[in-house]
Amino acid sequence: MDKVSPEEKLKILYVEDQEAIARLVEYKLSKEGIKVFLQYTGDGVLNKVIRTKPDLILLDLMLPVKDGLSILEELKGNEEVKNIPVIMLSIQGEEKKIEQAFKFGAADYIQKPFSTVELSARIHKALA
User: Counting Cβ atoms within 10 Å, is residue 105 exposed (0-12), middle (13-18) or buried (19+)?
Assistant: First the structure.
């Protein structure tokens, strides 16, 4: 993946069913000059990724309609978007879920609760 030039705004799609968390992350990342697109369900994520063309995807594991692992598998199976890094976020820390996320192609896995400082650092590492 090509690095984003300083003139371009970094774009992230955040798929999170808890609006308060999503809005907080959006606020914090926007302070860094990052454009955040929000999606609150697992329905239609692939279409939104194709439309918005994010540089990175933050994907919650537990979502209404379609779970994060199914979405990750769908994204990584699509030629048009498979190279976009995906960071999984979840309250679930069980090793099987973490292992599956990496097996399906996740760039990283962050357990909730997380600090926005850590999240920002991991985003920049995934895009390096």
Answer: middle
